[in-house]
Specification:
Length: 200
């Protein structure tokens, strides 16, 4: 037996015991789920001189005596503005680039990317959707025949109105001729003799 054995231990000494510490741990609670990602709206502003984008927390704000607010991208833009330089004369400003058509290809690409709205059929005043669809489904021969008939009718109507106008004009001319003839016959009594009451 070993020297530290319990059999050889003196009577006055207690046998060695290993101290066991009992810990009462609560079961670990599951951590709360992370909040959903919030889409941060980055409200950008434009530089008053160069036209560059200015992100929040950047740029220089200048308030004039008349309470007009100016925002500049950097001290260079601010200095040029106060020195009354024209942004249209500096090649790196947005105004110059726009005037000299430098970013045309980018604008064209943006325009191309825009989605076109698909047209959809709907009824309009004076024609229901069924009537419109029926007209669309018509054969071209039928449509041409209807068009020709409508044109013929319009031409006939115009011709009729022209004939009526001509007839009216002829009647008016006839009546005027008769009136002038009568006036001439009434007035022809012979030549007037005597000088009348002239100066003496």
């Amino acid at each position: 037996p070993s020297r530290l054995g319990l059999a050889h231990a003196p009577a006055h000494k207690k046998p060695l015991r290993s101290k066991q510490h009992t810990c009462f741990l609560r079961p670990a609670a599951a951590p709360p789920p992370p909040p959903p990602p919030v889409a941060l709206l980055r409200r950008t502003e434009l530089c008053r001189f160069s036209g560059q984008k200015i992100y929040p927390g950047k740029g220089i704000r200048f308030i004039r005596a008349d309470s007009a607010v100016f925002l500049f991208a950097n001290s260079k833009c601010k200095r040029y503005f106060h020195n009354r330089l024209k942004p249209a004369k500096l090649t790196w400003t947005a105004m110059y680039r726009k005037q000299h058509k430098k970013d045309i290809h980018a604008e064209a690409a943006k325009k191309r990317r825009r989605t076109t709205k698909k047209p959809y059929s709907r009824s309009i005043v004076g024609a229901s959707l069924e009537v419109i669809q029926k007209k669309r489904a018509e054969k071209p021969e039928v449509r041409d025949a209807a068009r020709e008939a409508a044109l013929r009718e319009i031409k006939e109507r115009i011709k009729k109105t022209k004939d009526e106008k001509k007839a009216k004009k002829a009647e008016v001319a006839k009546s005027q001729k008769a009136q002038t003839k009568g006036a001439v016959q009434k007035g022809s009594k012979g030549p007037k003799l005597g000088g009348g009451g002239g100066k003496r």
